[in-house]
C-alpha cells in the first residue's frame, strides 16, 4: 500500500498567505498542517507497513522539497515527488502520479484536511473495495458530498451541490483497493475532456468516483470522529481553535523558552520557543510561532507564524505570516503574508 498526498493547488482562497508558503506548510500549534496530516496517518503506516509517501506538488522550490523529504524520513518511509505545474483540478493532480498507480491499494489524503480517527485497521479489510471517509456537515454546498443507502454503500457522488441532497461531506481521505482502476478512470476523464461543470478549467476527483461507481465499483462511506478543514482562512482559524482545545487537555503548549513579561496568557494557546511577549493579553485560541516578539498588544483567535514582530495591535480572527512586522492600534481582522510590513 502507498499513500498519496496531493498539495499542488495555489491555495487561492488562502491568499495572501500562500504567496510564499504552500498552505500545507502553514504552522498550527507548532506543527505544519502537513506534518499533522502525516502523523494522523501513522497508524495506517505502521499497520500496513507502508514504505512510500507520494507528494504531488507545484513549483514550490527546493526548500519545500527538502521539508517533504525530511518529513517522510521522520516517519521511516520513502518520499516520491511528482509535479502539477498547471493547476487543473484534483483528478489531473492524481494522474501526475500515474507511474506509481500500478494496481496496489492506495490511500489518498488531501493536504487541506485533518481528522482524528482510530478505526483504520478495522475498516480497511479484504471485505471492502473502496472507502470514502466522510463527516456530516451543516453547509454541504461547500463540499463534495455523497448519498448512501442504509448499509453505508455510496449511491451518488455530487461536487458542491446547489440544492440539498445530502449532508454527508467527503473529508479528503480515500482508500482504493486497486490503484490501476483509479488510474484508468482518471485517464479516461482527461482523454474525454470531462471537466467540472462549475469550474470548466478543472478535472475533479468527485466526477471520477461517480463514473467508477456507475461502472460497478463499490464505495463504502465511513465517518471520521472529528474533521478539521483548512480550505480557507475562516475555517483555518476555527480549526486552530479545535486543535488547541484538544491538545491543551493532555500537554503544555507554551514552550519553556518563552519569555513573558507583565502579560496575561488566556489558555488554550500555543507559543513556540524563543518568543518574547511583553505588556500584552494573548488568547484564547492563539498559535504563535518561534522567535516572535509581541509588545503592547491584545490578540485572540489568531495564528502568528515565525520570526514576526507585533506591536500596539488589537487582533482577532487574524493570520500574520513569518518574518513580518505589524504595528497598529485599531481592532482588526488582519491577513498579512510572509515578509510583509504594516505600520
SSE diagram, text form:
Blueprint: E1 2-6, E2 27-28, E3 31-32, H1 33-40, H2 42-47, E4 52-57, H3 62-74, E5 78-83, H4 90-95, E6 106-109, E7 113-116, H5 120-123, E8 130-136, E9 144-148, E10 154-159, E11 168-176, H6 179-191, H7 205-214, E12 219-223, E13 226-229, H8 233-247, E14 259-261, E15 264-265, E16 269-271, E17 276-278, E18 281-282, E19 286-288, E20 293-295, E21 298-300, E22 302-304, E23 309-311, E24 314-316, E25 319-320, E26 325-327, E27 331-332, E28 335-336, E29 341-342
Parallel strand pairs: 1-4, 1-6, 4-5, 8-12, 14-17, 15-18, 16-19, 17-20, 18-21, 19-22, 20-23, 21-24, 22-25, 23-26, 24-27, 25-28, 26-29
Antiparallel strand pairs: 2-3, 6-11, 7-13, 8-11, 9-10, 9-11
In helices, the fraction of residues equals 10-25%
Radius of gyration: 21 Å
CATH topology of the largest domain: Spore Coat Polysaccharide Biosynthesis Protein SpsA, Chain A
What is the end-to-end distance?
51 Å
Total helical segments: 8
Mean pLDDT: 91
Helix vs. strand class: alpha/beta
Which terms would index this structure?
343 residues, alpha/beta, Spore Coat Polysaccharide Biosynthesis Protein SpsA, Chain A, UDP N-Acetylglucosamine Acyltransferase, domain 1, 2 domains, 9-stranded mixed sheet, 6-stranded parallel sheet, 8 helices, 29 strands
Amino acid at each position: 500500500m502507498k499513500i498519496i498526498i496531493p498539495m499542488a493547488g495555489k491555495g487561492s482562497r488562502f491568499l495572501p498567505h500562500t504567496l510564499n508558503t504552500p498552505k500545507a506548510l502553514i504552522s498550527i500549534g507548532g506543527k505544519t498542517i502537513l506534518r499533522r496530516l502525516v502523523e494522523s496517518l501513522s497508524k495506517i503506516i505502521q499497520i500496513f507497513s507502508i514504505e512510500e509517501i507520494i507528494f504531488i506538488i507545484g513549483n514550490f522550490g527546493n526548500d519545500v522539497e527538502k521539508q517533504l523529504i525530511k518529513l517522510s524520513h521522520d516517519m521511516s518511509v520513502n518520499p516520491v515527488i511528482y509535479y502539477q505545474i498547471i493547476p487543473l483540478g484534483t483528478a489531473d493532480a492524481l494522474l501526475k502520479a500515474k507511474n506509481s498507480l500500478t494496481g496496489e491499494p492506495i490511500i489518498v489524503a488531501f493536504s487541506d484536511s485533518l481528522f482524528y480517527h482510530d478505526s483504520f485497521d478495522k475498516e480497511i479489510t479484504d471485505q471492502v473495495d473502496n472507502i470514502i471517509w466522510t463527516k456530516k456537515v451543516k453547509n454541504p454546498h461547500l463540499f463534495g458530498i455523497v448519498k448512501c443507502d442504509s448499509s453505508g454503500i455510496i449511491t451518488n457522488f455530487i461536487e458542491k451541490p446547489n440544492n440539498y441532497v445530502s449532508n454527508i461531506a467527503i473529508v479528503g481521505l480515500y482508500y482504493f483497493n486497486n490503484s490501476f482502476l483509479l488510474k484508468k478512470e482518471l485517464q479516461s476523464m482527461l482523454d474525454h475532456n470531462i471537466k467540472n461543470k462549475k469550474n470548466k478549467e478543472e478535472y475533479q476527483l468527485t466526477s471520477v468516483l461517480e463514473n467508477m461507481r456507475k461502472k460497478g465499483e463499490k464505495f463504502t462511506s465511513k465517518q471520521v470522529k472529528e474533521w478539521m478543514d483548512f480550505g480557507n482562512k475562516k475555517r483555518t482559524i476555527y480549526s486552530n481553535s479545535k486543535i488547541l482545545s484538544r491538545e491543551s487537555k493532555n500537554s503544555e503548549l507554551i514552550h519553556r523558552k518563552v519569555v513573558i513579561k507583565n502579560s496575561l496568557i488566556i489558555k488554550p494557546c500555543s507559543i513556540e520557543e524563543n518568543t518574547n511577549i511583553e505588556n500584552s493579553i494573548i488568547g484564547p485560541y492563539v498559535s504563535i510561532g518561534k522567535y516572535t516578539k509581541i509588545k503592547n498588544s491584545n490578540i485572540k483567535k489568531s495564528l502568528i507564524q515565525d520570526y514576526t514582530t507585533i506591536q500596539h495591535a488589537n487582533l482577532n480572527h487574524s493570520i500574520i505570516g513569518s518574518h513580518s512586522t505589524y504595528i497598529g492600534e485599531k481592532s482588526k481582522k488582519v491577513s498579512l503574508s510572509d515578509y510583509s510590513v504594516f505600520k
